[in-house]
Amino acid sequence: MSGQKPYPYSTTVPKESLPPFSEEGVKLVKSPDPEWQPGQTQNPPEGKVLSFDAASLEARERYGLMISGIVPRPIALVTSISKERKIVNMAPYSFFNALSSDPPTLIVSTIHNRHGAHKDTLVNARETGHFVVNIMSEHFIESANHTCGNFPFEVDETEYAGIKVTPAKSIDGVVCAHSLFAMECKTVQLLPLFNDAGQETACAIIGRVVRFHIHESVYDTKSKTIILEKYRPVARLGGVRYATVNQVFELPRPFFADGKAPPKPKI
């Protein structure tokens, strides 16, 4: 029987008490303190800072702090194919980010279950050397989220989530047809991670991007970049919460023509 398991790090609010999802797009606004000048102190909030030795916390506590404190996080909806039976696997990972653009490289970290079993994504990326990172946008967030269920090994999650895929062009894999931005990757390194007891508890997959897929509706042909207002990506927060981008502000980078820092400002 399928269902929804209560998540230990969430405040569950009844859906009927929530307002409907807002279709309001991205707004460009002022920064939080537009009058700030170099050298001025932006004071932290009042109150004391709590400090915890990471080794003194239980693994569950560390996990809860990291997923709720390192936010918002981009989400990699990873597709891969099993080596022997060629079964599609799809799963979202928010321990994910870019590492470099030259060479184009990204990292996806997979967490083993409590029995030490490896995720299908890791198994497939190791055995085939290929995987695809698809970025999640608002228009298919519910179906994409459904793929994170504890499906048995070598079950095609896309069939349960109603997600369509298309063949990859440069690797042995599939691309999520709903994603507006996707990257075909080749596995270049696996980095196993061990806890203090010496147990392997996670493994980071480092992938080299060999092909980009960009929906024409979000591609700016002049700047050759992604149009955020049309892209509408979704980010991961703590618990089972997600976030969208609705307010954006710009802050110029300091630049020193001679490469030397100017005199310290006097406030």
TrEMBL record:
SMART domains tied to this protein: Flavin_Reduct
Cofactor(s) listed in the protein's UniProt record: FMN
Annotated region described as Disordered, given as residue ranges: 1-48
Positions with biased composition (Basic and acidic residues): 24-33
GO molecular function, one term: FMN binding
Sequence ranges assigned to domain Flavin reductase like in this UniProt record: 68-221
Alphabetical list of Pfam families matching this protein: Flavin_Reduct
Assigned keywords, A-Z: Flavoprotein, FMN
Segments of skewed composition (Polar residues): 1-14
InterPro entries referenced in this protein's UniProt entry, alphabetically: Flavin_Rdtase-like_dom, Split_barrel_FMN-bd
Domain of life, per lineage: Eukaryota
Family: Belongs to the flavoredoxin family.
Name assigned to this protein: Flavin reductase like domain-containing protein
Taxonomic classification: Eukaryota, Fungi, Fungi incertae sedis, Chytridiomycota, Chytridiomycota incertae sedis
